[in-house]
Amino acid sequence: MKQQANYRFLNWAQNQNCVAQNFFQPETEDELIELVKQSSKVRLLGTGHSWNEICLSEDTLINLDFYNKVLAIDKEKLQVKIQPGIKLWQLNEDLDKEGLALANLGSISKQSVAGAISTGTHGTGINYQILGSQMEEFNLIKADGEKMVLHRERNKELFNTCLVSLGCLGVISEITLNVVPAFNLRDYTIAIPFSEAVERLHEFVNQTDHFKMWWFPHTDKMVLYRYTRINEKANDSRFRQWFMDEFVSVNIYRFLLKVGNANRKWRRFINSLLVLNFNKPLDRIEKSYKVFNVPEPPLHREVEWAFDITHAQNLLRDYKQLINSSNHLINFIQEIRFTKADDFALSACYGRNTIWLGAYNADNFEWKELVDDFETLAKRYNGRPHWGKEFTIDKAYLQTVYPKYEAFNALRKQFDPTGKFSNNFIERIF
Ligand SMILES: Cc1cc2nc3c(=O)[nH]c(=O)nc-3n(C[C@H](O)[C@H](O)[C@H](O)COP(=O)(O)OP(=O)(O)OC[C@H]3O[C@@H](n4cnc5c(N)ncnc54)[C@H](O)[C@@H]3O)c2cc1C
Questions:
Q1: Model confidence at 296: pLDDT above 90
Q2: Which atom belonging to ligand 1 lies closest to the Cα atom of 172?
Q3: Whole-angstrom Cα distance, residue 187 to residue 230?
Q4: In whole angstroms, how far apart are CA 176 and each of 71, 114, 149?
């Protein structure tokens, strides 16, 4: 097992850091259990793709980068058993070789599977729940080192309570995931007027397997992404992928960000230039996991909240009005996604079909002011924050929007009576 003293952690967005006295990278479940038993304070660290303080610890950090294998693939049952440190991208590739795939994914696949599940990471598609819903069974190692095996049907109540756990119920060890035969997606992407996108929103959401939208702030255009599951062959050209997804989306965009930083007022014009890209429809077919994932984004800040879909149209109109009537000058897309309701205690989609609205900006300047304005609006709509992104609210508000908040907290105290898995973030929430 690899270990290090005084390990310096910096998250992906470079807005969170800590120095952990001890850092361990176990390779087996037995090593993991021993570490949990012998630690008095410990946090798990995936790939550090969360924007908030969720991973921070000055005591012990455990990372599962070397506990990351595919253990078994059952093609008949359509199930795969994995170790929790495997990255989504590795899993996508391993599954693809076997003619299999995850049914749904978020916008990137750099995260560890356990890390993504623990914060309720989601993709888009109103008939698809958060990523963790693809679990059939998982092992949870509690603070005292006891290993529990939780199955979605046999231990339904506990399974549902523990699925989104923020790393404070114990360590997720081996996971069995339900998978599907590999499939392609037809990606039809085009920009239309913001007002039309909002008016026809429910039509788009209900008639598309995986629907999402990007609003370029300060413009009147909304980019619609419509992904349809399809049996036809992939036809996306390598040249287009290189030119658009690497050269334009990565290099040219980063250059334009620099221009917009030289004078923030230019961002209005730059955003209207960027949206021109989408005036002509993109119509391509490609492997599912390649379509779900977007080109590597530049460093940026994110808040994202989940709302009852019945409020979707008013929420979007109010958000546009908020930005237009403010001084915020935003240089990044605002993202709108959709997921199906679920029964997982701390899932932001608990009990309601969900619209997600994300305010993103590749700028720290006046970011706090943007978050404050966003949260004022979000609270008015009874929103729930994404656990892996930035938010400033505390337990008093969370209790009002999570019907299972008390049940989860009671279980946390039972599983971890000494607060072994707590840090400042967990204490703020509970
Ligand atoms: C560029 C970018 C794009 C993103 N896109 C999306 C998206 O499309 N959709 C979305 O919903 N989110 C998205 N996110 C957020 C991201 O998916 C979550 O923050 C996710 O939790 C990060 O996974 P990670 O492996 O980095 O976990 P970390 O951030 O390292 O950890 C997250 C939590 O998981 C816990 N944890 C890790 N491993 C275990 C374990 N074995 N047992 C118990 N707890 C554990 C940690 O303690 C911590 O509480 C994105 C983030 C970035 C930076």
A1: no
A2: 42
A3: 10
A4: 9, 11, 11
Q: If you measure from the C-alpha of residue 15 to the centroid of ligand 1, how many angstroms do you get, rounded to a whole number?
A: 15
Which tens digit of pLDDT belongs to each residue from 384-413? 999 999 999 989 999 999 999 999 999 999
Which residues does 32 contact at the CB level (< 8 Å), separation at least 6? Answer: 26, 62, 64, 67, 141, 171, 173
- Give residue-wise pLDDT tens across range 322-341: 999 999 999 999 999 999 99
Q: Which residues pair with 56 in a beta bridge?
A: none
Measured CA distances, 422 to 19, 43, 51, 74, 427 (Å): 16, 7, 18, 36, 7
Query: How many Å lie between the centroid of ligand 1 and the Cα of residue 390?
Result: 12
Can you give the length of the chain in residues?
430
How many angstroms is it from 400 CA to the middle of ligand 1? 25
* Domains of the chain and CATH, by start: 184-385 (3.40.462.10)
pLDDT of the residue at 248: 87
